[in-house]
Design a protein that fits this description.
heterodimer, A: 330 residues, alpha+beta, Thrombin, subunit H, six-stranded antiparallel barrel, 5 helices, 19% strand, globular, disordered N terminus, B: mainly alpha, Arp2/3 complex 21 kDa subunit ARPC3, two-stranded antiparallel sheet, 8 helices
Chain lengths: 330, 170
C-alpha cells in the first residue's frame, strides 16, 4: 500500500487508475529483462560462429532474399533520375567534355604504344624463363541493391548468388579497386563484407616497399593498417595492393592509397570510394590453400602405369619354378 | 465512459510505429547517393523506443524492440542481438524515469532522447568492440548518433498522438 501511495504522489495527474501503474511498470521492466536475456543469448550463439559457409544461417539468407528486391526497387527510380540529370548535364557540358576527352586520348595513345611494347617484352621474357603465370580468373558482374553504412556493420547485397557460381570468400571489386569479399550466399543474392567493416581483415602490401600489413576495418571511411613493420614502410600517397598472403585474395588488386589518420595512424583511402559502387565484379577465385586435404599435395605421385611388354613366349625353365611356387602357396 | 471501455490497442501504438520505422530503415538502405553523398543511416527504431517508454509502461514494446532489433541486424548484416540489446538498454532507463520526464518541455525531452541514443550507441560500440576485438570508429558512431538525434520530432509526434489515448495514464 505504501508503494502505491508513493507512486500516486509522484504522478502528475490524479486519476483512479494510479494504483495500476506500479504493477504495469514492473511488468514492463520484467518483459524488458526477458527480452534482454533472449537478445544476449542470440548474441552469444552468433558470436561463436565465424564468417564461414556454415555460419550464414537460414534466417539471414531469408532476410537477404526479402531485402534485395525491395531496396533494388527503391533505388531504381533514383538511378533513373540520376541518369536523366547526367544526360542533361552532358548535353550542356558537351564541348568542354569533348576537349578534355581529346586531351586524354592523345595521352592514352602514347601509353598504348608503350603498353603494347611492354606486353610483347613480358611475353618474351616469360617464354625464355619458362614462367608459369596465373590463369585468368573467371568473374561475374552484379549490381549492389542494398548497403549498410553504420559504425558496426558495413555490408552490401549484390544481386548475383550461388546460381551464378558465387561462393563464400570470393573477392569483390568495383571498377576502381577492391570492395570486400562475399560472406553469405543465397541462390540469387550475395552479402559482401566491405573492407571498412569492423570484422574485415585483409592482408595487403605497400607497393613501393613491399611491406606487409593487415587492413583493419573499423566502421570509418578509412580502414587502418595494422602490423605494419620495417623502417619507413609507408608514406602518404603510397599505393596499397592485396598481398595474396594466406590465399584468401589474389595478389596485386588495388586497394587504395596511404593516408595519415587524425589519430596519427596509417590508414588507407580506399580506391573503391572514388566513385559510387554500383556494379561490382565478383572474382570466382579459388586458391590451393583452400583445399580440404592439404596433405594430398605432399603425397608422392602415383607410379606411372606399367608399359605393356611385347608379347613373347617365356622360356620353359622360367615357367616351371613359378608353377612350383604357386603350388606351394597355402 | 465510453473511452474507458476502449483501451489502447497494441497494434496501433506498437505495431504501426515498429513497421514504419523498419520501412524507413529499409528505404534508407538503398544504395543511393544524393549530391554525391550517401544516405544517412539513423537508428530509426530509437524513435518508437523513446516514445513507447514515454507513452505508457507495457510488456509489448520490449518484445517489439527485440523483434525490431533482430530485423535491423538482418537488414544491416550486423551480429544478431547487437541492436536488440542496444535498443532495450536505451528503452529501460527512459521507462523507469518516465514519471519524471512526463512534465518536461520538448527541448528537455530532446536532450533526454539524445542521452538515450548515446546510451544505445555506447552499448552497440562496446558489443562491437568485444566481438571484433578492435574498437569501432568513434566518428562513425557519432555520425549515426547525430542522424538519430535529429529524428526526435517524430518521437514527439508519436508521444503526442498516443500519450492521452489510454485514460488510465492521463
Amino acid at each position: 500500500m505504501g508503494a502505491r501511495e508513493i507512486v500516486g504522489s509522484v504522478s502528475f495527474r490524479d486519476n483512479p487508475f494510479g494504483e495500476v501503474r506500479l504493477p504495469l511498470l514492473l511488468g514492463a521492466v520484467a518483459a524488458c529483462v526477458v527480452a534482454l536475456v533472449v537478445a544476449f543469448a542470440l548474441l552469444m550463439v552468433d558470436r561463436r560462429q565465424t564468417y564461414q559457409t556454415g555460419a550464414y544461417n537460414a534466417l539471414r539468407k531469408a532476410s537477404d532474399v526479402v531485402v534485395a528486391p525491395v531496396t533494388g526497387a527503391v533505388a531504381a527510380p533514383v538511378r533513373w533520375a540520376g541518369g536523366v540529370a547526367e544526360g542533361i548535364g552532358g548535353y550542356f557540358f558537351a564541348a568542354s567534355e569533348n576537349r578534355r576527352l581529346k586531351a586524354e586520348l592523345a595521352a592514352a595513345r602514347v601509353w598504348r604504344e608503350r603498353a603494347i611494347a611492354l606486353a610483347d617484352e613480358n611475353a618474351r621474357y616469360r617464354a625464355l624463363l619458362g614462367l608459369a603465370v596465373d590463369p585468368p580468373v573467371p568473374m561475374v558482374t552484379g549490381r549492389t541493391v542494398s548497403e549498410s553504412r553504420g559504425p558496426y556493420a558495413n555490408t552490401r547485397l549484390v544481386n548475383v548468388g550461388a546460381a551464378q557460381g558465387v561462393r563464400v570468400g570470393h573477392p569483390v571489386l568495383s571498377e576502381n579497386g577492391l570492395v570486400g569479399r562475399v560472406i553469405g550466399v543465397s541462390s540469387r543474392v550475395s552479402r559482401v563484407l566491405m573492407l571498412t567493416d569492423t570484422a574485415s581483415r585483409t592482408p595487403v602490401m605497400i607497393q613501393r616497399t613491399r611491406a606487409r600489413a593487415i587492413l583493419t576495418g573499423d566502421g570509418g571511411w578509412a580502414p587502418g593498417l595494422a602490423y605494419l613493420r620495417g623502417r619507413d614502410p609507408a608514406r602518404v600517397g603510397d599505393l596499397v595492393l592485396t598481398s595474396g598472403d594466406g590465399g584468401v585474395l589474389p595478389r596485386g588488386i588495388a586497394v587504395g592509397r596511404v593516408v595519415r589518420g587524425v589519430d596519427g595512424d596509417w590508414r588507407v583511402q580506399l580506391a573503391s570510394d572514388s566513385a559510387p559502387i554500383d556494379f561490382v565484379r565478383i572474382l570466382l577465385f579459388e586458391d590451393f590453400v583452400k583445399l580440404e586435404d592439404l596433405r594430398a599435395l605432399e603425397r608422392p605421385a602415383p607410379p606411372p602405369p606399367p608399359t605393356p611388354a611385347p608379347p613373347t613366349d617365356p622360356p620353359a625353365a622360367a615357367v616351371a619354378p613359378a608353377q612350383k611356387s604357386r603350388g606351394a602357396a597355402p | 465512459m465510453t473511452t474507458l471501455a476502449q483501451p489502447l490497442r497494441v497494434s496501433r501504438w506498437v505495431g504501426g510505429p515498429l513497421l514504419a520505422a523498419l520501412a524507413v530503415s529499409l528505404l534508407l538502405a538503398a544504395p543511393i547517393r544524393l549530391l554525391g553523398l550517401p544516405l544517412p543511416e539513423p537508428v530509426t527504431l530509437m524513435v518508437p523506443a523513446f516514445a513507447w517508454a514515454m507513452i505508457r509502461p507495457a510488456a509489448a514494446p520490449a518484445f517489439a524492440l527485440l523483434l525490431g532489433g533482430l530485423a535491423l541486424e538482418g537488414l544491416w548484416g550486423a551480429p544478431a542481438g547487437l541492436w536488440a540489446i542496444s535498443l532495450l538498454a536505451a528503452y529501460l532507463p527512459i521507462l523507469v524515469l518516465r514519471n519524471i520526464l512526463a512534465a518536461q518541455s520538448p527541448v528537455v525531452l530532446w536532450a533526454w532522447y539524445g542521452l538515450a541514443c548515446l546510451l544505445a550507441q555506447l552499448v552497440g560500440w562496446l558489443i562491437s568492440a568485444w566481438i571484433a576485438g578492435a574498437p569501432p570508429s568513434l566518428a562513425a558512431a557519432g555520425l549515426q548518433w547525430l542522424a538519430t538525434v535529429l529524428l526526435f520530432p517524430l518521437a514527439a509526434l508519436l508521444i503526442e498522438r498516443f500519450r492521452d489515448a489510454d485514460v488510465r495514464f492521463r
